[in-house]
UniProtKB/TrEMBL annotation:
Gene3D superfamilies xrefs: ABC-type transport auxiliary lipoprotein component (3.40.50.10610)
InterPro entries for the chain: ABC_trans_aux
UniProt keyword annotations, A-Z: Lipoprotein
Keyword Lipoprotein: yes
SUPFAM superfamilies, per database record: XCC0632-like
Domain (ABC-type transport auxiliary lipoprotein component): residue spans on this chain: 22-176
Pfam families per record: ABC_trans_aux
Superkingdom in the source lineage: Bacteria
Keyword Lipoprotein applies: yes
Protein name: ABC-type transport auxiliary lipoprotein family protein
């Protein structure tokens, strides 16, 4: 019995794999020729409860499409909803003036994150999938649209998923802001 206790105790002393943390990298900035935006306010981005933490999620679409699971040793530095929200605010500011949310004279942009995950279509191929609903309002609804971006990952691992989700975030935000620029905001 003592031997079993020593063996089990030894398992607790083995080093675990280090946790790797990621963010979305440096902001992309406005693309040359982007339509400038008027002064806007940005509401806090919301998402489902499962995205409140800092887990990096993946789905094995080819074998268990209904199962969403987190990587064991790879994490975001903060929730992906907050990372996306920060990136969105940077992008709005780079294309116009970002004002405080209480400035009701300016139109508001509200994002609801619906999906933010790495999807494996096979054991060797994956993509970062982002699905968000954008709503623009001021004294009522101006427009609402759902955006879906599926960015192929260069590698079929967490690091590849992070790069795909970062590029996908930039693509989704650019598409959202291009759409917002077409709305009657003034």
């Amino acid at each position: 019995m003592a031997l079993a206790g020593l063996l089990l105790g030894g398992c607790a002393l083995t080093p675990s794999a280090p946790v790797i943390t990621y963010d979305l990298g440096p902001p992309a900035g406005a693309a040359p020729g982007s339509t400038p935006l008027p002064k806007m306010r940005v509401a806090q981005t919301d998402g489902p409860a499962w995205l409140d933490g800092n887990s990096l999620y993946y789905r094995l679409h080819y074998t268990q499409a209904e199962r969403l699971q987190p990587y064991a040793t790879q994490r975001w530095v903060m929730s992906p909803v907050r990372l996306f929200d920060d990136r969105l605010r940077e992008a709005v500011a780079s294309r116009g003036a970002l004002t405080w949310f209480g400035d009701t004279a300016a139109p508001a942009l509200k994002i609801d994150m619906l999906e933010f995950e790495q999807v494996f279509d096979s054991a060797s191929a994956s993509r970062g999938v982002i699905r968000v609903r954008a709503t623009v309002f001021r004294n009522g609804l101006i427009g609402q649209k759902t955006f879906v971006v599926a960015q192929p990952a260069a590698t079929a691992d967490g690091a590849g998923g992070v790069k795909a989700l970062a590029a996908g975030s930039d693509a989704a935000i650019a598409a959202i802001l291009d759409w917002v620029a077409t709305l009657p905001l003034r």
